[in-house]
Amino acid sequence: MRKPFIAGNWKMHKNIQEATSYGELLLHKIREAGVDSDKVEIGLFVPYIHLSALSIIFDLSGVGVGAQNMFYEDKGAYTGEISPSMLSDLGIRHTIIGHSERRQYFGETDEACARKIRAAYAHDIEPVLCVGEDLEDREAGKYEDTVRTMLLGSLKDVAPEETEHLTVAYEPVWAIGTGKTATTEQAQEMAAFIRTVLADRYGSDRADQIRIQYGGSVKPENIAELMSMPDIDGALVGGASLDAEKFMKIIAYDDALLGKESKRVRMIPSSARS
Ligand code: 13P
């Protein structure tokens, strides 16, 4: 059974004040709703400058605070970069690798992703590897080839047993920040395709354990339908994760994920309430 993994990616948003008040509000809402961390994993990928403060806020809460990128070298003359050992030193256990915005604006290649994933594993940091085709490849019908190349290139040095700590996010570039979600069928079709590529590479037992998220205009209105698909195990949420209330609605897409805490609260007899 793959545990659903719902994660927010703030991208380059929020100042310190906004980040901490969001963190406190989300933590409060997660506790109030009684989100059961045995049933759903929550992640929040934030700008580096917020990692420390948010890690403290979410300490022991079951919410994993992660980075949006990292370099593959441990230290050296790499102005502007952040290393895996620096993240690990902060207690960070998750990072996004190869987001399409990194590929598009910063020239990140599959080779660089492969090196970053190696470095992440060397520091016990779990990567969320992003793959997805652009509109041109979608319209030319080349989307499967593109995604296969990205996967195999980025995972080329990943051993079968390391896939236990791997998440893949399918994020079609044409659906990111555009309000244009892939249809549920398109998202499922590609998640299933990704699983087939992973099965060819690692065997179907391993592939069946790897979580595949969908990302691209996920919102409270479409999360439940996406999550009902057999190969979609989570979501990587951009814009809608910037608002704690909206993100909370996405996390709580299914009442079954809300645990004992909320049931206990609901069961307090009305006479006992003020
Ligand atoms: P949006 O949810 O804003 O489309 O962004 C998706 C994304 O890029 C998450 O990594």
Core attributes:
274 residues, alpha/beta, TIM Barrel, 8-stranded parallel β-sheet, 12 helices, 8 strands, 14% strand, disordered C terminus, binds 1,3-dihydroxyacetonephosphate
Characterization of the model:
The N and C termini lie far apart (42 Å). This protein has helices spanning 16-33, 51-57, 84-89, 100-106, 110-122, 135-139, 143-154, 184-202, 204-209, 223-227, 244-251, 260-267; strands spanning 5-9, 41-45, 63-66, 94-97, 126-131, 167-170, 211-215, 234-237. α1 runs parallel beside α11 and α5 crosses α7 (143-154). The chain has one domain (5-272): Aldolase class I (TIM Barrel, Alpha-Beta Barrel), CATH 3.20.20.70. The chain is α/β, with parallel strands linked by helices and 274 residues long. The protein contains 12 helices and 8 strands. The chain is globular and about 45 Å long. Helices cover 42% and strands 14% of the residues. Residues 262-274 have low confidence and may be disordered. β2, α2 and β3 form a beta-alpha-beta unit. Strands 3-2-1-8-7-6-5-4 form an 8-stranded parallel β-sheet. The structure holds 1,3-dihydroxyacetonephosphate. 1,3-dihydroxyacetonephosphate binds at residues 9, 99, 171, 176-177, 215-218, 236-240.
- What string gives the helices and strands in order? EHEHEHEHHEHHEHHEHEHH
CATH architecture: Alpha-Beta Barrel
C-alpha Rg, in Å?
Answer: 19 Å
Give average pLDDT, whole number.
Answer: 93
Strand order of the largest sheet: 3-2-1-8-7-6-5-4
Q: What is the name of the CATH superfamily?
A: Aldolase class I
The parts where pLDDT drops under 50 for at least 5 residues are 262-274
CATH class: Alpha Beta
* Overall geometry: globular
End-to-end distance, in Å? 42 Å
Beta strand %: 5-15%
> What number of domains?
1
What portion of residues is helical?
40-55%
What's the CATH topology name?
TIM Barrel
Count the DSSP helices: 12
- Attached small molecules: 1,3-dihydroxyacetonephosphate
